[in-house]
TrEMBL record:
Keywords: Oxidoreductase
InterPro entries registered for this protein in UniProt: Ald_DH/histidinol_DH, Ald_DH_C, Ald_DH_CS_CYS, Ald_DH_CS_GLU, Ald_DH_N, Aldehyde_DH_dom, Aldehyde_DH_Superfamily
One Pfam family cited in the UniProt record for this chain: Aldedh
Protein name per Swiss-Prot or TrEMBL: Succinate-semialdehyde dehydrogenase [NADP(+)] GabD
Active site per database record: E260
Gene for this chain: gabD
Coiled coil (UniProt feature): none
PROSITE patterns, per the entry: ALDEHYDE_DEHYDR_CYS (PS00070), ALDEHYDE_DEHYDR_GLU (PS00687)
Top-level EC class: oxidoreductase
Taxonomy, superkingdom: Bacteria
Amino acid sequence: MTFKLEPGELIRADNFIDGRWVPAASGARFAVTNPATGEVITNVADSDRADARAASDAAARAFPAWRDALPKERAAILHRWHALILEHADVLGELISLEQGKPLAEGRGEVAYGASYVAWFADEATRIYGDIIPQQQRGKRMTAVKEPVGIVAAITPWNFPLAMIARKIAPALAAGCTVVAKPAEDTPLTALALVLLAHEAGVPPGVLNLITASRERAVPAVADWLEDSRVRKITFTGSTPVGKYLARESAATLKKLSLELGGNAPFIVFDDADLDAAVTGLLVAKFRNGGQTCVCPNRVYVQAGVYERFADLLSQRVAALKVAPATDPAAQIGPMINVRALDKIVRHVDDAVSHGARVLTGGKRLPELGPHYFEPTVLADANADMELCGEETFGPVVPLFRFEDEAEAIQAANDTPFGLASYFYSQDVRRIDRVSRQLEAGIVGINEGALSSEAAPFGGVKESGYGREGSKYGLDDYLSIKYHCQGGLD
């Protein structure tokens, strides 16, 4: 199987500013490559401060009219955008797999997942309610209304190039905000295609603007938004160090922030768990996108009484996973995104082995497939001295830690500065209540490995960030509350 994408079929290589496709002001470009082969797909605009400022100028001009549009008018445009995304699902799925590397089935699944947020917030656009505050004094009426915050800057990662940007743009547009956006340098093509479809759906010029930039130029480009007082909100998904940088640098203008940052998710298997279900749940949670998701389990704690049996069941299932490029219909694990990601995985596995880990399956690069492939790996006898215990691997590596009792498992699970997702398997209803309350995470999977839904609030605690995406709560971060006090009514 080969991808049939043609240059004119949703592939764009310029910035989208004020309703027009324009090159970077400097004329610079950078290459977007296929991680499965290392081949260049195309060269896109390499933007800097001038392009970022042009985008925010356009967003500022468009904001008053978009803010004042009726909610049902904004909703209608979002519904048309949703329909166009689904109409082009196959092409978008191929594009995701081409530039990001995930298997084609996962690429198509991401299209449906990202589109679900557009549909959800299209409906939520018509449900932005205020309140009449009970009267406190005669002749005085008090009300609270919700208004769009203003221009939103959305900065998104490479691992879900459609879903992450849809999850940010859709609520912003639903709330009446205008948007400037920058996708990850590894995967800009899917975001550009999504913006093209939004334009075709009727999003007015200036309401949605997107620039692309290489790693070197992205910092000054984003810095312009951080310094611009007209940009009232930053929404970012990515690493905790970058999230902290954005928080510091935006403090001068006191921007509103939504930060969905790094994780170090524990996955706990108690001795009363359904082990077959736990193995299946772990495979779903861990190996989606080859382990390159922020909610992937990074530390798997298994109670001593079932440790060896669980390790054996898991190793058999992991060894059977098919590693191949997305063009192979049987592919279950694709390439890692780039050589930096692969080098980190190798470093973690080598360090674990040097600290006593046993490789039950996998553990090696697969250069015969291409430059960025690594075997799905299970490591036994993991311990807290290993780098992978404190740092996200972001790859297809499962370290198994042994524990004796519930208190030990909870203490180990919470012994991290991060708190995005946690998972545990148990059939004891009392334990389920205890453990779910004690885990320090914004998301808890209980006998379940698939957590994400447009109807659920997604976000973390501690150094995994703040704010929530999706659900009925997902619109709040794009709105401000205004209090009206009207007197003289007697």
